[in-house]
């Protein structure tokens, strides 16, 4: 940095150091050369002609952060610099491969994690001894972002489905599983999630992800789970339900439950029930979560409370 620029930045560094640091980190995360190199090594079909991938990321970033109301507005604001037509922008966006988008998320997380570590800004684990991974799904609903002809019918194709993995201690989205079919069920993508499970992970997820194959798959890879039981997942309750104490949201009970895996073998899990002080927005007065975490590592109260904080 030149001496002149140094003097310009001095008041900001002295009076607003966090803002300057945050901007520096973000500019590094979205460095154009890094992003273009990521595209070059990840893309399988697309290639760079006149429009750089980093330019597309920059345009989308302006929309996501609210700097511009739309991609078209962002394009118009810097059309002269881009030197391509608006149609070229939309063509590039429409053909970006899923693997490129997923790698962009992973790359940003890989860069941000060491910074969070150096700043000693990691959150304490929800359950000691485990690295909590929170899994959730999302897709764009019918909106103005869909083609006008399709906005009033749910039978029309929806935008894509995504599953996102959040590292609870870093508060970073570290992985994303993408599907172009917006009508795809979230659980149909779980086969792509299982390879992401590592030893001593603790996976938390809502009932949409509660399948025997997914639960057993996590356990087979050395991970733990605290996942809400789906109403369609039936098992055999074993023993009596015992009171374990209270948490902020209700009374906690525990009972064993036996499920059958794909091979027909029994799998015994902990079934933790929270009798809620207030019903959920769906009207549920109790919620049940299934877990393979040993009692010596976490009590029923701890697991119930952690699930509620996910």
Summarize it:
36% of the residues lie in helices and 24% in strands.
Give the SSE map.
Blueprint: H1 3-15, H2 17-29, H3 32-42, H4 53-64, H5 71-77, H6 79-82, H7 86-94, H8 98-118, E1 131-139, E2 161-167, E3 172-179, H9 190-193, E4 201-205, H10 212-220, E5 224-228, E6 236-247, E7 250-260, E8 266-276, E9 286-291, H11 300-308
Parallel strand pairs: 1-4, 4-5
Antiparallel strand pairs: 1-2, 2-3, 5-9, 6-7, 7-8, 8-9
Report what the structure shows.
With 310 residues, this protein is α+β, with helices and mostly antiparallel strands. The chain folds into two domains: 116 residues, no CATH class; 178 residues, no CATH class. The chain is built from eleven helices and nine strands. The chain has a nine-stranded mixed sheet, sandwiched between helices. Strand 2 and strand 3 form a beta hairpin. The radius of gyration is 23 Å and the shape is elongated. The two termini are 43 Å apart.
